[in-house]
Amino acid sequence: MNLRRIITLVEETRTEMGQPVSPPARRALAAAVIVNPYAGRYVADLAELFETGAELGTLLGAEALTALGCAAGDVQGYGKAALVGEDGELEHAAALLHPTLGAPLRDVLGGGKALVPSSKAMGAPGTVIDVPLGHKDAAYVRSHFDGMRLQLPDAPRRGEIVVAVALQLGGRPNPRVGGLRHSEVTGADGLR
User: Fold this and answer.
1) Residue-wise over 76-112: b if at least 16 C-beta within 10 A, else e?
2) What confidence category does residue 190 fall into, taking pLDDT thresholds of 50, 70 and 90?
3) Is the pTM of this model over 0.85?
């Protein structure tokens, strides 16, 4: 993996619409700007990106966990995303995110039963990347449907990819749309 840069971002919401958020809603994102080894050409076998995805699952998971400042077992939600520069293709993002990134991310966190929400896009430097978030053990926990945004003025360059992982300590600030609560999760099937 040819890594140009790592970015971390932490958000903590303490009040929302004048109402206190207790405990504060805290989430963190770690992103890597990497060189796309397949930029500018079609390649049938994307195995190199599978390997890079596994490395980034561990690296970005650990970076985001450190930035979040909690124990791995305290993390309640996660998500992943990739933004491919103009000389790549959307399948390059899929190759990084889907075959191998999730298991190493779960290893960093000590588990996770639910699918890791993801998004893929193509764009030029300065394009916003949206990283969806969901509960790590139960997909039906609505309070944890959220996301983080990242915008880098110099990435992705034409032959680069931005890959991001986000973690959340709790759900959205002051959630009140019903559904399964974190305290009710059984974590048996990744749904409830």
Assistant:
1) bbbbbbbbbbbbbbeebbbbbbbbbbbebbbebbeeb
2) confident
3) yes
